[in-house]
Amino acid sequence: MAISFIPYNQKLVPLAVKLRNNSTVCNKLLWEELRERKLLGYKFDRHKPLGEYIVDFYSPELMLAIEIKDSKADYKSGYDKRRRKEIERFGVKVVTITDLQIKNNIKRVVERLKQQIKQIKESPNIA
């Protein structure tokens, strides 16, 4: 069962604001596709604290977090696995996209996200 409010560390709020104000190019490109309910009518927040972490994008309606990772980074490291597990513990699905995927074909990324949303909506766990 999804939780309506996900607790978060209040100390992360200033960092989240700083990240919003200093977004990467890829973050800005994807935000243009998500803002103002452009993606299938769902609301997304930017740089949202969840628990002890900040996710790049989050839809409370879908319980979906979208993470952009540097294509050169090891986003399957121990830290990232713990981070993902902690976020998923709240019932949030995490989708990871690399910056290279966004730069090379933002339309394909958006289509992938639409498919993820359709799968979430078809799941019996979503009210």
Automatic annotation (TrEMBL):
Gene3D superfamilies membership: VSR Endonuclease (3.40.960.10)
* Pfam families xrefs: DUF559
Q: Which residues form the DUF559 domain?
A: 15-117
Q: Does this entry carry the keyword Nuclease?
A: yes
* Signal sequence bounds: none
UniProt-recorded Gene Ontology molecular function terms: endonuclease activity
Query: What name does this protein carry?
Result: Very-short-patch-repair endonuclease
Organism of this sequence: Fodinibius salinus
What is the organism lineage in this UniProt record? Bacteria, Pseudomonadati, Balneolota, Balneolia, Balneolales
